[in-house]
Design brief:
Oligomer: single chain
Shape: globular
Radius of gyration: 25 Å
Largest sheet: 11 strands, mixed
Number of helices: 16
Strand content: 25-35%
Helix content: 25-40%
């Protein structure tokens, strides 16, 4: 079913007509336009001549110049107007998802279908059209997919307006957005059939490569973005003012950053803060200014220096794939696709199912993001956790439990699969249900006799012994759910469960989000004959 574009509200961009892009040049104009790129490398002024073969042609004092529409946006009254496009599936929302993931994800989907895909830049910022032809390009058309990228908030407005079938978001839908869509008949937006996690992304705090500062505390980061720290010399750097960069207030990237740094009580940005329109522009500005600091998605660092963050408990956090998959890096987020239930068609359903599946992992990683696969890491005696468990300042009772954990831990590797819970709850969240499926597939490929231990932990709210009992119960619950889910597929895997309560926290216990990180069940694994 073709889905016709109506003009999207706010920042959503009109898309190019495929017929215009493929059938011939637009009629010539004779008026001045400006071609600009987000990273500042292109800024050309001239008279618009035509748009042909996915290129702008402008006339300048140096002659006619041809610039790819994938590199620039056109500004000026004479710019071509691309409206009234038809596509089978329209996606709108986050530029992190639309620009960063979708080009490769659509290519991967085409390969999965045995199709050939042609991706055509629209001539408008943040928009492209992908067409799939079956039998590796020799068959019949299999669908067209229009992607318009702006901000996460636009994803839900487009779903509400029914001007897109898929909303792309770099944050989870807000309760107000979910209620508005529910009241419009769209269904339960946080059900597993409408909310699809496709990747994990760590937000990286970046500086210019020449900046000598390589690590900062979370308290120092709060100081920079509240205006109380204004000079790099206060952080051990050179004597120079800090140029603070941020994103638009309604950006999903901004929301994750502010919440991760400040929690619910975020101050106003410092006077003079510069606003970047997207991740690419943010990285370009930081790379051009030795005094700048900003934040981008994991895939958009573009040579900038990534800072190590030190949390308020002194734990160093690096934005690597394992930490992101376990949700133990302070500035990490999921990337989502959302769809309405009442207008869901087969083409939309098939694509979102692929995007959240193991078949998409390779292209997610190739795009520079972190897929939802299962990672494995040794737990050594010289690691941070082992040193934490050897803390001599704790009392004898807690020390005995810590040594008990250490004795078991060193014989097992840890898997990145981690299950989390609300306070007092033993029910898995939506990510947990997804984890069950991924974990079952991973363990099915392990040799018979592999030992798996489910290990529960809690936050520090409540009595110590009660917390340990809760951690035991959660670990047993996850093990039982996996056994029920997988059935005989895992008959050769030996499973057990235990719990250690509030010891070995993965984060501080000073905020709701940090306590959520500590309420977890880890999965430890030991190979046969280890």
């Amino acid at each position: 079913m073709a889905f016709k574009i109506a003009p999207l509200k706010q920042n959503l961009v009109s898309a190019v007509a495929l017929g215009v892009a493929l059938l011939g040049p637009l009629a010539a104009h004779s008026a001045e336009v400006t071609l600009k790129s987000a990273d500042g490398t292109v800024n050309l002024v001239g008279d618009f001549v035509e748009f042909t073969d996915n290129n702008y042609v402008i006339r300048t004092g140096l002659g006619d110049l041809r610039i790819s529409a994938s590199r620039v946006r056109c500004e000026g009254a004479a710019c071509p107007d691309f409206n009234n496009t038809e596509a089978d599936v329209i996606m709108a929302g986050s530029d992190t998802v639309g620009d960063g993931v979708m080009p490769l994800l659509l290519s991967g989907y085409a390969a999965f279908l045995g199709a050939e895909v042609t991706q055509t830049a629209t001539g408008n910022s943040g928009a492209f059209l992908a067409e799939m032809i079956g039998d590796e390009g020799f068959g019949d058309p299999m669908g067209s997919y229009l992607v318009t990228s702006s901000g996460s908030s636009d994803a839900f407005q487009a779903l509400l307006d029914q001007t897109a079938q898929i909303g792309m978001s770099a944050r989870r839908i807000l309760p107000t957005e979910a209620r508005a869509l529910r009241d419009d008949g769209a269904g339960n937006m946080i059900s597993t059939s409408q909310e699809h996690i496709i990747a994990v992304d760590s937000l990286v705090v970046i500086t210019h490569p020449a900046n000598p500062v390589r690590a900062i505390t979370m308290d120092q980061l709060r100081g920079i973005y509240s205006g109380t720290i204004t000079n790099w010399s206060e952080l051990g750097g050179v004597d120079a003012p800090i140029t603070v960069l941020s994103r638009q207030a309604d950006s999903g990237t901004t929301g994750v950053f502010i919440n991760g740094v400040f929690g619910d009580e975020a101050p106003a940005l410092p006077a003079g803060t510069q606003i970047a329109n997207d991740n690419t522009e943010m990285a370009a500005r930081v790379n051009a200014d030795e005094t700048a600091i900003g934040f981008v998605g994991y895939a958009f660092q573009r040579g900038a220096s990534a800072l190590t963050l030190i949390n308020d408990c002194g734990i160093s956090m690096t934005p690597d794939a394992f930490s992101a998959r376990t949700e133990e890096y302070a500035l990490q987020r999921f990337l989502y696709l959302y769809n309405r239930d009442d207008t869901l068609d087969q083409a939309t359903s098939d694509f979102v199912s692929f995007a959240a599946s193991e078949q998409a992992d390779e292209v997610i990683a190739k795009a520079g993001f972190i897929d939802l696969g299962v990672d494995r890491r040794p737990q050594s005696l010289d690691g941070d956790r082992a040193r934490q468990l050897l803390d001599p300042s704790v009392d004898a009772y807690e020390g005995g439990i810590m040594r008990e954990m250490l004795a078991q831990m060193v014989d097992y590797d840890r898997l990145s699969t981690t299950f989390r819970f609300r306070t007092g709850s033993q029910n898995l969240n939506p990510r947990g249900r997804l984890n069950l499926a991924r974990l079952a597939d991973y363990l099915e490929g392990q040799p018979a006799g592999t030992r798996v231990m489910f290990v529960g932990f809690t936050d520090d709210v409540g009595a110590f012994d009660s917390n340990r009992e809760i951690s035991f119960g959660r670990a047993e619950k996850v093990m039982t759910e996996l056994q029920d889910f997988a059935g005989s597929r895992l008959s050769g895997i030996e499973m057990s469960s235990t719990g250690f309560g509030e010891i070995a926290p993965a984060a501080c216990n000073t905020s709701d989000n940090e306590r959520r990180i500590n309420r977890r069940v880890e999965v430890w694994i030991q190979s046969p004959n280890a």
